[in-house]
Amino acid sequence: MNSNTWIAIILAVAVAAGVFFWSQSREPPIVPADAPSQSQVPQDSEEDEPAITNYDECIAAGNSPLPDAPDKCLTRSGYIFIQGVIEE
Fold first, then answer.
1. Which terminus in the chain has less CB density within 10 A, N or C?
2. Confidence band, pLDDT 50/70/90 cuts, at residue 12
3. Are strands 80-82 and 65-66 parallel, antiparallel or unpaired?
4. Is 37 exposed, middle or buried (0-12, 13-18, 19+ CB in 10 A)?
5. What is the pLDDT of residue 36?
6. pLDDT of residue 53
7. The dihedral sign for the CA sequence 12, 17, 22, 28
8. pTM, full prediction
9. Residue extents of the structural domains in the chain
């Protein structure tokens, strides 16, 4: 084999290894084990749900804190609010 063939083989192996390691480094989002899946979240229209903007309003609207994360509240429409975190 000549040197051009070896260079092509080395480059192909390096690219394949790079793609493999890049795809392995991407972590899936962390979701609590007992959080309802999208199919389990009631699909009420957002018009029926009052405008919730923080954790306290989420609890006041009748939503429960997540069992494994009591500082997080999940609305019927699927939004999660974290106690003490305010987003603008």
1. C
2. very high
3. unpaired
4. exposed
5. 59
6. 86
7. positive
8. 0.42
9. 3-82
CA angle 78–80–84, rounded 5-degree value: 165
Pick from 55, 46, 34: which is nearest to 76 by CA? 46
- CA 27 to chain centroid, in Å, comes to 10
Q: CB neighbours of 44 closer than 8 A, spacing ≥ 6?
A: 76, 77
Helix or strand or coil: residue 23? helix
> Where are any strands of DSSP class E within the chain?
65-66, 69-74, 80-82
By 3-state DSSP, what share of the chain in percent is helix, strand and coil, each rounded to 5? 35, 10, 55
Take residue 55 and report the two structure tokens written for it: 């954790």
